[in-house]
Amino acid sequence: MGNPYWIYELDELHTIFDTEGRYGKWYDLRRYVLEPALKEINDYGTVTVKMTPQKRGRSVVAVRFDWRWKTIDEARETEEENERPASARHQDKTRQDAPPLIPEEPREREPHTEEQKQRASKLAAEARRLLRQGSAKK
Length: 138
Description:
By secondary structure, this protein is of the alpha+beta class. The chain has helices at about 10-15, 25-45, 70-85, 115-135, and strands spanning about 5-10, 45-55, 60-70. It has a 3-stranded antiparallel sheet.
């Protein structure tokens, strides 16, 4: 691993990725095979890999992969992210959009109005009357 880069011809890449006969166009190979693989390597691994197409005229004939080891801080951050569940990866840890852990103080009830008190008294009197009638029938 003394070389900070590797160069592979497209035929070699098709053999390595077992895509012979598929992804005949450079655009498709790059989009569906190489970019997803590099994204995962850079996201989960301890190295950072960059891809550069090598052209002959207008055609891509090979790909150069430059790599470097991540710094200690980058590797530590990658390791912390790898330990998190997939749904929580790369989320801002300082977001404060969660509900508060301490419930709010209950609000004091407003005093009843005279109208509410009179209505409650009437309902209570009606309930007592119905109870007396029900117990008298037994």
